[in-house]
Predict the 3D structure of the following.
Amino acid sequence: IQSIDDVSEKLNNALDGKNGEGFDITPEAEFWGHCSNFQVWAEQNYDTRLLHSNLSFPLLKKLTEIGGLLYLRKYNKHKITHRKKALSP
């Protein structure tokens, strides 16, 4: 397993559509869990393996568009391109 996408694929969408049913997680705890994931993602230089690709790539695109990731354009461009190609069917 190399990424969150791999984990999702392994689970075979077993958790999709549950909307938290069957789990004793408050909305507040779920919110802070998501915040923690985004914090780690940012601290790890926006490593696209740490968030699902359906979140990480659109967020990176928007952050780059608004100028929030100028240094990332050159530094990680090859990593992002390689990962997007690997995810393509």
In short: The chain has a mean pLDDT of 79. The CA atoms of residues 4 and 52 lie 5 Å apart.
